Prior knowledge:
The chain is of the alpha+beta class.
Amino acid sequence: MAYDNDNIFACILRREIPAEKVYEDEHVLAFHDIGKLAPVHVLVIPKGAYISIDDFSERASDAELVAYVRAVGRVARKLGVAKTGYRVVTNCGTDANQEVSHFHSHIFGGRKLGGVRPPHSG
Ligand code: AMP
């Protein structure tokens, strides 16, 4: 599958549509999710054109990989959830309902998040 240059996060990276920025460095941008599911709900994305974590883990440079993981921790500390706990979720592909085809991780926090239980059916 080819990377879609018109996906919404590519538009955010090109500053064609606004986003509420939380963190930015050479390789990474983090911003608040527009459909907030927890008091803290932030998306962390690489600036490079990667479709999914599968694609990112395969093709990204060491510098991009390191920057991405560090950024997740920095965002969690910056928003205070590193003290109380948080969840990092990356949907990959159809079975996980990945809606935006630019690799991203959700950081959820600011309330009790409960357990993680995938659906039983199927
Ligand atoms: P996923 O289902 O893992 O692909 O998640 C995509 C996420 O992107 C959803 O939580 C959406 O609410 C979020 N989203 C879509 N458009 C925007 C936008 N313009 N700004 C911020 N978040 C967005």
